[in-house]
Amino acid sequence: MVTLPPRSLASPSTISSGSGVLRGTWAFDFEAGIEAGSLQVADVWWEQMTSTARQLVPLNGAALCSMGLVAYDSLGLADLTRLPYSTAPIPGNAIGSNALVDGSVFAVRTRSGNFVKVQVLHYDYNLGIRWQTCTRPVNYLGVNVTLGNTPSWLVTRYVVECSYNTPNGIRNCGKGIYGPEGGVVQGQISDEGGSFPSTILVTITVDFQPDTKLVGLVKSFTPPVTDTGVNFLFEPLRVIQKTDVLFDLQPLPITTDYLLLRWKHIAGGVVVASGQQYLSGDELRKQAVTQYEIVFVPDPILAKDFSVEIEGRYQNQLLPLFTQTYDLSEKAFVMRAQKDSSGTGYVLVSA
Question: Which class in CATH covers the domain with range 140-234?
Fold first, then answer.
Protein backbone atom coordinates (compact mmCIF):
# COMPACT_ATOMS: atom_id res chain seq x y z
CA MET A 1 0.00 0.00 0.00
CA VAL A 2 1.28 3.45 -0.87
CA THR A 3 1.33 5.70 2.20
CA LEU A 4 -0.04 9.15 1.42
CA PRO A 5 -1.68 11.86 3.53
CA PRO A 6 -5.36 11.07 4.32
CA ARG A 7 -7.89 12.36 1.82
CA SER A 8 -11.39 13.26 3.04
CA LEU A 9 -14.32 11.92 1.05
CA ALA A 10 -16.90 13.80 3.10
CA SER A 11 -17.32 17.42 4.07
CA PRO A 12 -16.60 18.16 7.77
CA SER A 13 -20.23 18.99 8.46
CA THR A 14 -21.42 15.59 7.17
CA ILE A 15 -18.57 13.42 8.40
CA SER A 16 -20.96 10.57 9.33
CA SER A 17 -22.05 10.23 5.68
CA GLY A 18 -20.72 10.97 2.26
CA SER A 19 -19.64 9.61 -1.11
CA GLY A 20 -16.37 9.31 -3.00
CA VAL A 21 -13.75 6.92 -4.35
CA LEU A 22 -11.86 4.30 -2.32
CA ARG A 23 -8.72 3.71 -4.33
CA GLY A 24 -7.21 0.29 -4.85
CA THR A 25 -4.70 -0.72 -2.12
CA TRP A 26 -6.06 2.00 0.18
CA ALA A 27 -7.83 1.67 3.52
CA PHE A 28 -10.81 3.61 4.80
CA ASP A 29 -11.70 5.02 8.22
CA PHE A 30 -15.48 5.16 8.59
CA GLU A 31 -15.09 6.75 12.03
CA ALA A 32 -13.55 9.87 10.48
CA GLY A 33 -15.02 9.57 6.98
CA ILE A 34 -11.62 9.57 5.24
CA GLU A 35 -9.21 7.35 3.39
CA ALA A 36 -6.59 6.25 5.91
CA GLY A 37 -2.86 6.53 5.42
CA SER A 38 -2.25 3.56 7.70
CA LEU A 39 -3.93 0.19 8.23
CA GLN A 40 -3.75 0.75 11.99
CA VAL A 41 -6.33 3.58 11.91
CA ALA A 42 -8.80 2.09 9.43
CA ASP A 43 -11.91 -0.09 9.37
CA VAL A 44 -11.49 -1.70 5.93
CA TRP A 45 -8.76 -2.29 3.36
CA TRP A 46 -9.50 -2.54 -0.38
CA GLU A 47 -6.85 -5.16 -1.03
CA GLN A 48 -5.54 -5.86 -4.55
CA MET A 49 -4.00 -9.33 -4.34
CA THR A 50 -3.40 -9.61 -8.10
CA SER A 51 -4.52 -7.72 -11.16
CA THR A 52 -7.92 -9.44 -10.87
CA ALA A 53 -8.13 -10.88 -7.31
CA ARG A 54 -9.53 -8.32 -4.89
CA GLN A 55 -11.22 -8.29 -1.51
CA LEU A 56 -12.49 -5.85 1.10
CA VAL A 57 -10.80 -6.75 4.40
CA PRO A 58 -12.08 -5.66 7.85
CA LEU A 59 -9.36 -4.27 10.14
CA ASN A 60 -8.70 -3.62 13.82
CA GLY A 61 -11.79 -5.39 15.17
CA ALA A 62 -14.21 -4.05 12.59
CA ALA A 63 -16.60 -6.54 10.93
CA LEU A 64 -18.54 -6.71 7.66
CA CYS A 65 -21.78 -8.13 6.33
CA SER A 66 -22.50 -8.35 2.60
CA MET A 67 -26.18 -7.65 1.93
CA GLY A 68 -26.37 -7.84 -1.86
CA LEU A 69 -28.76 -5.77 -3.94
CA VAL A 70 -31.10 -4.34 -1.29
CA ALA A 71 -32.82 -0.97 -0.78
CA TYR A 72 -29.99 1.14 0.63
CA ASP A 73 -32.04 4.22 1.54
CA SER A 74 -34.56 2.36 3.70
CA LEU A 75 -31.93 0.68 5.91
CA GLY A 76 -31.85 1.96 9.48
CA LEU A 77 -30.00 1.28 12.71
CA ALA A 78 -32.38 -1.51 13.74
CA ASP A 79 -31.68 -3.31 10.44
CA LEU A 80 -27.91 -2.99 10.79
CA THR A 81 -27.64 -4.06 14.43
CA ARG A 82 -29.22 -7.47 13.84
CA LEU A 83 -27.02 -8.49 10.90
CA PRO A 84 -24.55 -11.43 11.18
CA TYR A 85 -21.23 -9.59 11.02
CA SER A 86 -18.00 -11.40 10.24
CA THR A 87 -14.29 -10.64 10.15
CA ALA A 88 -14.02 -12.56 6.85
CA PRO A 89 -13.23 -10.40 3.78
CA ILE A 90 -15.90 -9.65 1.18
CA PRO A 91 -14.76 -10.94 -2.25
CA GLY A 92 -14.58 -8.33 -5.00
CA ASN A 93 -12.76 -10.13 -7.80
CA ALA A 94 -12.66 -8.72 -11.30
CA ILE A 95 -12.96 -12.31 -12.54
CA GLY A 96 -14.92 -14.77 -10.43
CA SER A 97 -16.90 -14.17 -7.25
CA ASN A 98 -17.75 -10.54 -6.66
CA ALA A 99 -20.09 -9.30 -3.92
CA LEU A 100 -19.23 -5.65 -4.63
CA VAL A 101 -21.01 -5.16 -7.94
CA ASP A 102 -22.62 -1.86 -8.85
CA GLY A 103 -25.60 -1.16 -6.57
CA SER A 104 -24.65 -3.78 -3.97
CA VAL A 105 -24.74 -2.91 -0.27
CA PHE A 106 -22.63 -4.00 2.66
CA ALA A 107 -22.68 -3.03 6.34
CA VAL A 108 -19.72 -2.16 8.55
CA ARG A 109 -19.54 -2.51 12.31
CA THR A 110 -16.63 -0.17 12.89
CA ARG A 111 -13.72 -0.78 15.24
CA SER A 112 -15.43 1.33 17.93
CA GLY A 113 -18.86 -0.28 17.47
CA ASN A 114 -20.69 2.15 15.21
CA PHE A 115 -22.89 0.87 12.37
CA VAL A 116 -22.43 2.11 8.79
CA LYS A 117 -24.29 1.20 5.61
CA VAL A 118 -22.27 1.38 2.39
CA GLN A 119 -23.38 1.12 -1.25
CA VAL A 120 -21.08 0.44 -4.21
CA LEU A 121 -21.86 3.09 -6.82
CA HIS A 122 -19.24 1.86 -9.28
CA TYR A 123 -17.08 -1.25 -9.15
CA ASP A 124 -13.50 -1.12 -10.45
CA TYR A 125 -9.92 -1.02 -9.25
CA ASN A 126 -11.12 2.13 -7.49
CA LEU A 127 -14.48 1.67 -5.72
CA GLY A 128 -17.04 4.42 -6.01
CA ILE A 129 -19.04 4.32 -2.75
CA ARG A 130 -21.51 6.20 -0.63
CA TRP A 131 -21.97 5.56 3.10
CA GLN A 132 -23.97 6.68 6.10
CA THR A 133 -23.45 6.07 9.81
CA CYS A 134 -26.75 5.02 11.39
CA THR A 135 -27.18 6.37 14.90
CA ARG A 136 -29.84 5.91 17.51
CA PRO A 137 -31.90 9.07 18.11
CA VAL A 138 -30.95 10.76 21.38
CA ASN A 139 -33.81 11.44 23.82
CA TYR A 140 -33.92 14.12 26.51
CA LEU A 141 -35.56 14.66 29.90
CA GLY A 142 -35.85 17.90 31.83
CA VAL A 143 -34.03 18.81 35.04
CA ASN A 144 -35.66 21.24 37.49
CA VAL A 145 -33.96 22.12 40.77
CA THR A 146 -36.04 24.50 42.88
CA LEU A 147 -34.32 26.61 45.55
CA GLY A 148 -36.58 27.80 48.34
CA ASN A 149 -36.40 31.37 49.55
CA THR A 150 -34.65 32.16 52.81
CA PRO A 151 -34.30 35.38 54.87
CA SER A 152 -31.83 37.90 53.45
CA TRP A 153 -30.27 38.32 56.90
CA LEU A 154 -29.25 34.65 56.74
CA VAL A 155 -28.18 33.80 53.17
CA THR A 156 -26.41 35.94 50.57
CA ARG A 157 -26.51 33.53 47.63
CA TYR A 158 -26.85 29.98 46.33
CA VAL A 159 -24.49 28.54 43.69
CA VAL A 160 -25.84 25.43 41.97
CA GLU A 161 -24.11 22.91 39.68
CA CYS A 162 -25.88 19.85 38.22
CA SER A 163 -24.08 17.06 36.35
CA TYR A 164 -24.32 13.39 35.35
CA ASN A 165 -22.06 10.67 34.02
CA THR A 166 -22.11 9.36 30.43
CA PRO A 167 -19.80 6.95 28.58
CA ASN A 168 -18.39 10.05 26.90
CA GLY A 169 -17.61 11.84 30.16
CA ILE A 170 -19.35 14.11 32.66
CA ARG A 171 -22.12 16.32 31.26
CA ASN A 172 -23.46 19.52 32.82
CA CYS A 173 -27.25 19.57 33.14
CA GLY A 174 -27.90 22.92 34.80
CA LYS A 175 -26.22 25.65 36.80
CA GLY A 176 -26.96 29.06 38.25
CA ILE A 177 -26.36 31.65 40.95
CA TYR A 178 -29.30 32.96 42.98
CA GLY A 179 -29.92 35.33 45.85
CA PRO A 180 -31.78 34.53 49.08
CA GLU A 181 -35.09 34.66 47.21
CA GLY A 182 -34.13 31.38 45.49
CA GLY A 183 -35.13 30.34 42.00
CA VAL A 184 -35.31 27.40 39.58
CA VAL A 185 -32.33 25.82 37.83
CA GLN A 186 -33.38 24.24 34.54
CA GLY A 187 -31.42 21.85 32.34
CA GLN A 188 -31.71 18.51 30.60
CA ILE A 189 -30.18 15.04 30.52
CA SER A 190 -29.88 12.65 27.58
CA ASP A 191 -29.69 8.91 26.98
CA GLU A 192 -26.66 9.28 24.69
CA GLY A 193 -25.01 6.33 26.43
CA GLY A 194 -27.92 4.01 25.62
CA SER A 195 -30.04 4.81 28.69
CA PHE A 196 -30.75 7.68 31.04
CA PRO A 197 -28.67 7.89 34.24
CA SER A 198 -30.34 6.64 37.41
CA THR A 199 -29.38 9.79 39.35
CA ILE A 200 -27.76 13.16 38.81
CA LEU A 201 -25.39 15.06 41.10
CA VAL A 202 -26.64 18.38 42.48
CA THR A 203 -24.04 20.46 44.33
CA ILE A 204 -25.31 23.52 46.20
CA THR A 205 -22.96 26.06 47.76
CA VAL A 206 -24.57 28.33 50.35
CA ASP A 207 -22.95 31.61 51.41
CA PHE A 208 -24.23 33.17 54.64
CA GLN A 209 -24.33 36.77 55.73
CA PRO A 210 -21.14 37.68 57.64
CA ASP A 211 -23.15 38.78 60.71
CA THR A 212 -24.46 35.23 61.21
CA LYS A 213 -20.88 33.95 61.65
CA LEU A 214 -22.00 30.78 59.84
CA VAL A 215 -19.34 29.21 57.64
CA GLY A 216 -20.32 28.77 54.00
CA LEU A 217 -20.95 25.17 53.15
CA VAL A 218 -21.33 22.83 50.21
CA LYS A 219 -24.10 20.20 50.08
CA SER A 220 -24.32 17.40 47.51
CA PHE A 221 -27.48 15.51 46.61
CA THR A 222 -28.24 12.67 44.18
CA PRO A 223 -31.91 13.00 43.22
CA PRO A 224 -33.29 10.12 41.13
CA VAL A 225 -34.15 10.31 37.46
CA THR A 226 -37.79 9.34 36.85
CA ASP A 227 -39.84 8.92 33.70
CA THR A 228 -40.58 12.64 33.81
CA GLY A 229 -37.00 13.73 34.47
CA VAL A 230 -35.58 15.22 37.68
CA ASN A 231 -37.55 17.43 40.05
CA PHE A 232 -35.68 18.38 43.22
CA LEU A 233 -36.52 20.90 45.96
CA PHE A 234 -33.87 22.40 48.22
CA GLU A 235 -35.39 24.39 51.06
CA PRO A 236 -33.35 25.05 54.21
CA LEU A 237 -35.24 24.57 57.48
CA ARG A 238 -35.13 28.01 59.02
CA VAL A 239 -38.15 28.35 61.37
CA ILE A 240 -38.11 28.26 65.15
CA GLN A 241 -38.57 24.71 66.34
CA LYS A 242 -41.10 24.13 69.12
CA THR A 243 -41.63 20.67 70.56
CA ASP A 244 -43.92 19.93 73.50
CA VAL A 245 -42.85 17.38 76.10
CA LEU A 246 -45.82 16.03 78.03
CA PHE A 247 -45.21 14.20 81.34
CA ASP A 248 -48.12 11.92 82.21
CA LEU A 249 -46.92 10.43 85.51
CA GLN A 250 -49.08 8.00 87.47
CA PRO A 251 -49.05 7.70 90.43
CA LEU A 252 -48.73 11.39 91.22
CA PRO A 253 -45.11 12.45 91.94
CA ILE A 254 -44.18 13.22 95.53
CA THR A 255 -42.54 16.46 96.70
CA THR A 256 -39.01 14.98 96.76
CA ASP A 257 -39.24 13.85 93.12
CA TYR A 258 -37.70 15.80 90.24
CA LEU A 259 -36.87 15.50 86.54
CA LEU A 260 -33.94 17.08 84.72
CA LEU A 261 -34.68 17.44 81.02
CA ARG A 262 -31.72 18.05 78.68
CA TRP A 263 -31.86 18.39 74.90
CA LYS A 264 -29.44 19.19 72.10
CA HIS A 265 -29.51 19.65 68.35
CA ILE A 266 -26.48 18.33 66.43
CA ALA A 267 -25.76 19.31 62.82
CA GLY A 268 -22.72 18.07 60.92
CA GLY A 269 -21.35 16.49 64.09
CA VAL A 270 -21.43 19.82 65.98
CA VAL A 271 -23.87 20.82 68.75
CA VAL A 272 -25.54 23.97 67.41
CA ALA A 273 -28.27 24.35 70.04
CA SER A 274 -28.90 22.88 73.51
CA GLY A 275 -30.65 23.51 76.78
CA GLN A 276 -32.02 21.99 79.96
CA GLN A 277 -34.91 22.39 82.37
CA TYR A 278 -35.30 21.29 85.99
CA LEU A 279 -38.82 20.28 87.01
CA SER A 280 -39.38 19.86 90.74
CA GLY A 281 -41.81 17.48 92.38
CA ASP A 282 -44.11 20.39 93.23
CA GLU A 283 -44.14 21.51 89.58
CA LEU A 284 -44.85 17.97 88.41
CA ARG A 285 -47.78 17.74 90.88
CA LYS A 286 -49.52 20.93 89.78
CA GLN A 287 -51.46 19.29 86.95
CA ALA A 288 -52.28 15.79 85.82
CA VAL A 289 -50.13 16.21 82.71
CA THR A 290 -47.13 18.54 83.00
CA GLN A 291 -46.16 20.31 79.78
CA TYR A 292 -42.78 21.81 78.88
CA GLU A 293 -41.95 23.40 75.53
CA ILE A 294 -38.49 22.92 73.96
CA VAL A 295 -37.70 25.93 71.77
CA PHE A 296 -34.65 26.41 69.52
CA VAL A 297 -33.60 27.55 66.05
CA PRO A 298 -32.39 24.56 63.98
CA ASP A 299 -29.30 24.77 61.85
CA PRO A 300 -30.55 26.30 58.55
CA ILE A 301 -29.06 23.62 56.31
CA LEU A 302 -28.30 20.44 58.21
CA ALA A 303 -31.39 20.31 60.42
CA LYS A 304 -32.58 16.74 60.85
CA ASP A 305 -33.23 15.71 64.46
CA PHE A 306 -32.59 16.47 68.12
CA SER A 307 -31.80 14.27 71.12
CA VAL A 308 -33.35 14.27 74.57
CA GLU A 309 -32.01 13.03 77.94
CA ILE A 310 -34.04 12.83 81.14
CA GLU A 311 -32.81 11.85 84.57
CA GLY A 312 -34.32 12.29 88.01
CA ARG A 313 -36.13 10.76 90.94
CA TYR A 314 -39.65 9.33 90.89
CA GLN A 315 -41.53 7.89 93.84
CA ASN A 316 -38.35 8.66 95.78
CA GLN A 317 -36.28 6.28 93.61
CA LEU A 318 -33.58 7.24 91.10
CA LEU A 319 -34.59 6.72 87.48
CA PRO A 320 -32.37 5.12 84.85
CA LEU A 321 -31.19 7.70 82.31
CA PHE A 322 -33.67 8.06 79.43
CA THR A 323 -32.17 8.91 76.01
CA GLN A 324 -33.85 9.14 72.62
CA THR A 325 -33.48 10.99 69.31
CA TYR A 326 -36.51 12.57 67.63
CA ASP A 327 -37.04 13.87 64.11
CA LEU A 328 -37.60 17.60 63.81
CA SER A 329 -41.03 16.77 62.44
CA GLU A 330 -42.03 15.61 65.92
CA LYS A 331 -44.10 18.43 67.41
CA ALA A 332 -44.84 16.68 70.70
CA PHE A 333 -44.08 13.50 72.60
CA VAL A 334 -45.48 12.04 75.82
CA MET A 335 -43.40 10.60 78.66
CA ARG A 336 -44.86 8.04 81.04
CA ALA A 337 -43.50 6.10 84.02
CA GLN A 338 -43.85 2.35 84.21
CA LYS A 339 -42.60 -0.40 86.46
CA ASP A 340 -39.16 -1.75 85.60
CA SER A 341 -38.44 -5.43 84.98
CA SER A 342 -37.91 -6.08 88.69
CA GLY A 343 -41.28 -4.62 89.58
CA THR A 344 -39.76 -2.52 92.39
CA GLY A 345 -38.66 0.58 90.51
CA TYR A 346 -39.70 2.79 87.60
CA VAL A 347 -38.44 3.71 84.15
CA LEU A 348 -39.47 6.52 81.80
CA VAL A 349 -40.83 5.53 78.39
CA SER A 350 -41.83 7.62 75.39
CA ALA A 351 -45.44 6.80 74.64
Answer: mainly beta
Ramachandran region, residue 346 (left: φ > 0; alpha: ψ -120 to 50; beta: rest):
beta
- Digitized pLDDT (tens) for each residue of the chain, 351 residues in all: 323 333 333 333 334 689 999 999 999 999 888 899 889 999 999 999 999 999 999 999 999 999 999 999 999 888 999 999 999 999 999 999 999 999 999 999 999 888 999 999 999 999 999 999 988 778 999 999 999 888 788 789 999 999 999 887 899 999 999 998 999 999 999 988 778 999 999 999 988 888 877 777 888 899 999 999 999 998 765 556 789 999 999 999 999 999 999 999 887 677 877 889 999 999 999 888 888 888 777 766 666 788 999 999 999 999 999 999 998 888 899 999 999 999 889 999 998
Q: Considering the domain 241-350 in this protein, what is its CATH number?
A: 2.60.40
Residues 139, 189 contacting (CB under 8 angstroms): no
Query: Where exactly are the structural domains of the chain?
Result: 12-134, 140-234, 241-350
Q: Report yes or no: 333 and 326 within 8 Å, Cβ to Cβ.
A: yes
Is the link from the previous residue into 300 a cis peptide, with omega within 30 of 0?
no
Helix or strand or coil: residue 74? Answer: coil
pTM for the whole thing? 0.47
The span from the CA of 121 to the CA of 128, in Å, is 5
Partners of 21 in the beta sheet? 128
Burial of 128 (0-12, 13-18, 19+ CB in 10 A): middle
CA-closest candidate to residue 333, choices 312, 315, 311, 308: 308
215-219 own/partner pairs: CB under 8 Å, 24+ apart: 217/268, 217/301, 219/301
Q: Where do the DSSP E strands lie in 52-199?
A: 54-58, 63-68, 90-91, 105-109, 115-122, 127-134, 140-147, 155-166, 169-178, 183-190
Helix (H/G/I), strand (E/B), else coil: 332 = strand
Q: How many other CB atoms are there within 10 angstroms of residue 16's CB atom?
A: 17
What DSSP line would sit under 37-60, residue for residue?
SSGGG-SEEEEESSSS-EEEEE-T
Nearest alpha-carbon partner for 243 in 269, 263, 267: 263
Matching fold, domains 140-234 and 241-350: yes
